[in-house]
Amino acid sequence: MSRTESWQVRKVAASLGAEVLNADLSKINAEEADCIKGLLSQHKVLFFPGQTITVDQHVELGSHFGVIESHPNLKNPYTEHDKVFELAASKGGIADEWHTDLTFMEEPSIMSVLHMVTCPEVGGDTMWTNLCQAYEELSEPMKDLCESITALHDALPHNRTDKMMVHPVIRVHPETGQKTLYVNEHFTRRIVEMNASESEMLLSYLTRWVQNPRFTVRYGWTAGTIGIWDNRCTQHMVLNDFEGERIIHRVTIMGDRPEGAASPKYKPWARVGNKSDTSRQDRQLKSYYRQ
């Protein structure tokens, strides 16, 4: 009998998220990895409580899903393994803004595999939002607009504004074909084809829109739980409402370049020749196109 036949899958929210019981992720085979991929396509984020794995086993687990890369900007002072990034709340590092991992890169992360090593008894939950549903529930005029424009993402939260990339506002998931709303409050700086004030207005609306509770799941961690999510169709954030130590190990799987639902219809604002906008974002956009 296949080991996956004993797995029990339970949805934890209407929009996305499922808990998988009776799985042992300390050593999985190709069939089990394929099963996880299938469940991920359906639920977008999976939780496997009660796991006992070493750092090397964590890396081996992630390697079933693609190429692993350490964090491109932040140092890893706590864990020696170069493929694992550790965030320890008592030492800083709370991702308490909504974001998709590493969208400032040309080929952002496709998946993240998180091992909750230590967590507080109360608080420190993580929330995810379903970017496919966020797109689907936009009005038709807003869909048309968003499909025709792009956005600049940068690594400002990591003090690396020189690292930036333009991606479509609406991307197509390469495996499911679903359209997703691909902007976030943490890394997305501006709409490329709009002036600064227009960009601010639209981005503030879209980044609030994806936070609608109807699109989200909130998960309360227990030590040993492994969470796996698809960065191509989700955002997440940590609730910074706890005291004590919260330590996670994360393996990040890279990466494909986001493909837009349609070709951009308009020229970048910085290329139009308008000299009245002198904001940092406009200068940054011009810098991007000079690269």
Describe what this molecule looks like in 3D:
- It is a single chain.
- Helices cover 21% and strands 27% of the residues.
- It is an alpha+beta fold and 291 residues long.
- The protein has a single domain, classed as Double-stranded beta-helix (4-Layer Sandwich), CATH 3.60.130.10.
- The strands form 4 sheets. Strands 1, 2, 3, 4, 5, 6, 14 and 16 form an 8-stranded mixed beta sheet that branches. The chain has a 3-stranded antiparallel beta sheet with strand order 13-7-15.
- The longest helix is centred in the N-terminal third of the chain and has 14 residues, at 30-43.
- The chain starts with 7 loop residues before the first strand and ends with a helix.
* Structural class category: alpha+beta
Run of helices and strands? EEHEHEEEEHHEEEEEHEEEEH
The largest β sheet comes out as: 8 strands, mixed
The CATH superfamily title = Clavaminate synthase-like
How much of the polypeptide forms β-strand, as a percent range?
Answer: 25-35%
Task: Name the CATH class.
Answer: Alpha Beta
Task: Give the rounded overall mean pLDDT.
Answer: 90
CATH structural fold name: Double-stranded beta-helix
Described by the principal axes of the CA atoms, the overall outline is globular
Count of DSSP H/I helices: 6
Low-confidence blocks of residues: none
Span of the ends, CA to CA: 55 Å
